[in-house]
Design goal:
The complex is a heterodimer of chains A (about 270) and B (about 210).
Chain A: H1 2-21, H2 24-43, H3 47-59, E1 90-92, E2 97-99, H4 101-113, H5 117-121, H6 130-140, H7 154-167, H8 178-182, E3 188-189, E4 192-193, H9 200-207, E5 212-214, E6 219-221, H10 223-234, H11 244-256, E7 266-268
Parallel strand pairs in A: 5-7
Antiparallel strand pairs in A: 1-2, 3-4, 5-6
Chain B: H1 2-36, H2 42-49, H3 53-60, H4 67-78, H5 93-101, H6 147-151, H7 155-166, H8 188-199
Helix pairs in contact in B: 5-8, 7-8
Classes of the chains: A mainly alpha (about 270), B mainly alpha (about 210).
């Protein structure tokens, strides 16, 4: 909490400088944002509420099978949650695919609780969705652990290489790729700072704090939600939830952030 | 003699196998794109996901094309340049200023749908500093503050500026900047307005 507080203090100092030069309208809007941040400092990260709700959902029998998720295997064995998220995405032999935390969670909801894929994922992107709460709970169980994404299995190595290729893949009416905004140091869209994912420190700082409470959205966003929104901004069509393109990019981005110490849920603009 | 010939053969063989590996990776990535965006309409597929030659080359060379490829891009992109029907390549800087701030339009998200009829702009401020009064300017591209002061409004300066916004890759192969005219994102008339915003002595960019 103290780290968060000092981080925000730095933010305020930066924001104050910006405001001094901005016009009244912008100042008004910026002040509103800062008010929100201040409130949050007193209340803590609202993602903690999501985390608690996720824990409730985890241990509540649900679905046709009236089962909990407590026996879910996130890669380290059934029911082993500590550090599991830090080692995702990875290959799972029962589904014969590389899965990220969201994809694997949905597999567990289907296998253990008997839900259909459609039932398990309905409204995943809505504020305070069950998926977002569960993902927040799972991520928090890796707090303090280094990101280590395996690229040992053939499918892991393949999807990593494809993810790297996708990161640089330009298309659409604006000729954009992920790399357009995320391959140089110290760049911004307007005043929004952009992580350079070719730089390990930048990649780590960004990746260890997903999922995160988004102040501008007023809710927790998962990493899939974040990547999906990048495609909206790039003017590409919308990728399907849990699709291989999103997982491939996650593998590449998390590999770039290898060794970063997990600190999710984060709190971001 | 034989050993150097062997060495050359070995280098050639390694280069060939590296190229085959690269091709396999690109094929895999393309297969993933097709599967992951399977709900895209045929039209969206063709205009948003299918790469043209330039996009494919710039992706392949990570935006740093070797000289031969760069020359080829310059040549093909020079041929794409088109001009307003009126022939007037410098328009109204006030309209250009509006375009520079508009970051909406052309989005395809169903989970965060854009307002119907949201205007489409150039969103220049996302990446460039322009009028000094606008502090919320991005820095992905170079600062263009005072752009017209250095260049004036000679026919050559106007044409060159117009061409670069229409298709930046006719001058800078694999530039990060969108090819606004070539890709049909802005009309030739809108580009002329953007030119005015950059070059007109009355524009706040040059104040």
């Amino acid at each position: 909490m103290r780290v968060l507080a000092s981080g925000l203090a730095v933010f305020f100092a930066g924001a104050a400088l910006t405001i001094a030069a901005a016009n009244d309208d912008q100042t008004g809007r910026a002040m509103e944002q800062i008010q929100k941040y201040r409130q949050m400092l007193q209340d803590g990260n609202p993602a903690e509420l999501s985390e608690m709700r996720g824990e409730q959902l985890w241990v509540t029998p649900r679905g046709p099978s009236r089962a909990t998720l407590e026996q879910c295997d996130l890669g380290l064995g059934a029911g082993k949650l500590e550090g599991a998220d830090a080692r995702l995405p990875r290959y799972f032999s029962d589904t014969d695919q590389v899965q990220d935390v969201e994809s694997r969670l949905v597999t567990c909801m289907m296998q253990l609780q008997g839900l259909t894929r459609e039932e398990a994922t309905r409204g995943w992107y809505l504020p305070d969705s069950d998926i977002a709460a569960l993902v927040t709970f799972i991520a928090a169980k890796s707090k303090g652990m280094p990101i280590r994404v395996p690229t040992v299995h053939k499918k892991e190595a393949q999807i990593y290489a494809a993810g790297k290729e996708l990161f640089f893949r330009r298309s659409g009416p604006l000729d954009f790729a992920c790399a357009t905004c995320h391959s140089q140091d110290g760049r911004r869209i307007r005043l929004q700072e952009l992580p350079n994912f070719l730089d390990r420190k930048d990649a780590q700082a960004s990746m260890v704090t997903w999922p995160a409470y988004r102040v501008s959205e007023g809710t927790v966003w998962t990493l899939e939600r974040r990547v999906t929104d990048c495609f909206r901004q790039m003017r590409w069509p919308q990728p399907e939830y849990l699709s291989e393109a999103i997982v491939a990019l996650e593998v590449y981005l998390r590999k770039q952030a290898e060794g970063g110490i997990m600190d999710a849920p984060g709190i971001k603009r | 003699m034989r050993s150097s010939a062997n060495a050359i053969l070995f280098v050639l063989a390694s280069a060939a196998s590296a190229a085959a590996e690269d091709n396999a990776v690109v094929s895999k990535a393309e297969a993933i794109v097709r599967k992951s965006f399977s709900t895209a309409t045929p039209d969206d597929w063709n205009t948003r996901l299918k790469q043209d030659e330039v996009q494919a080359l710039c992706s392949q060379y990570r935006n740093n094309p070797p000289p031969k490829i760069a020359e080829r891009i310059l040549a093909t992109q020079q041929r794409t340049l088109k001009y307003p029907a009126s022939g007037k390549m410098i328009g109204d800087w006030r309209e250009g200023e509006k375009l520079a701030s508009i970051g909406t339009g052309g989005q395809l998200s169903s989970i965060k749908p854009e307002e119907a009829g949201a205007p489409r702009g150039g969103n220049c401020y996302a990446c460039h500093a322009l009028a000094p009064s606008e502090v919320a300017a991005g820095n992905l591209g170079p600062s263009l503050t005072g752009f017209g002061k250095l260049r004036g409004t000679s026919p050559d300066a106007v044409k060159r500026t117009y061409q670069q916004i229409f298709n930046v890759q006719a001058f800078y192969p694999c530039s990060m900047m969108p090819r606004f005219g070539h890709n049909g994102w802005l009309t030739p008339e809108q580009i002329a307005d953007a030119v005015a915003f950059l070059l007109d002595p009355e524009s706040p960019v040059n104040k």
